[in-house]
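Hey L., structure's done. Input below.
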Amino acid sequence: MKLLAFILAILSASGCSYPSCSVFPTKEWIEAKPEEVELNSQVLNEAVNFLELNSGRNGTTELMIIREGRLIYQGDSIDKVHGVWSCTKSFTSTILGLLIDDNRAQLNTMAKDIIPQMAEIYPEVNLSHFATMTSGYLAEGDTAKKGYTHGSSATPFIPGTVSLFEPGTKYAYWDAAMNQFAHILTQIAKEPLDGFFKKRIADPIGMNKNNWYWGDFGEVDGLKVVGGAGNLGKGIFISANELARFGLLFLNKGRWNGNQLISSDWIEQATKVQVPPTMELGSPLSNIDGIGVYGYNWWANGVGSSGSRLWPDAPPGTYAASGHNNNKMFIIPEWDMVIVRLGLDANDVVITDLIWNEFLRKIGDAVEN
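Output:
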């Protein structure tokens, strides 16, 4: 009994639960067969085949499934590097979490106190507004009326002369606002965010430096500014292999092999609903609906404007980073699981939330059987 108590104490100190305990990859992932982590391999294959049939040309070639830190499924192209569009936003808010950990910023830090040009039109906008898409920020050049209309400005750091709405009152998924958010965070960090992220997160979790980079707008106000949104080719470029490590860090609430790299409190806040279901959409030009399901630049499995959960057949604690071209990373704490599917095939097929939900339902069947 004393030995068991000792083992339990070690597991608890390392952030693990008994009898299940995640492991962490070094240079390579530890691989396991589905049955070794209590998954039904036949049912799991049915889920993967379903996703393959409902995807475009990239299928499941960039699919990875991690359970308890062990790689149980991998496609043939998990080291392919390309843009992941709005998955970038989840990296941007992670920078905010690190700066809060450092006591260099707070959710209520005012944008005007960092970028004085924000004071005239956006005097009440704070960092939480940017992270929840409730800032109402409109940049110079945000004039598109059809096609890509949700913040396409090539000059996102120049505030527009009118706002979309009063901050905190409505929701509008807006890329120019996210790029201005990255600009503000850069000024707080006093260094480019790609280097800051590399030092604090990417290197400690073993992300291959050759298989990810963060596109930038060049120098703004004396510092290189990376894209906070993922549009205009200025976002995160990464392989599924490296992105899965980032997901495993979040699954373990910011702890990596005994080291707390980002606070568990931040991860808990960032990945739960922060946009209330009572809020309204703030612009007809942006129809991406995060009401009731959006956290701090993460998608949560909350109850949306439709009255149902975003993915009804997935566990309530599920959350995701999501980007154009069918780029997705699901983190499912109840299943101790990270699922990454990357691609460049939205012109073939758009994988809808209905399809994702059915895929996750089938994964759940593999967990339960």
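The CA atoms of residues 248 and 338 lie 6 Å apart. The radius of gyration is 20 Å.

-- N.
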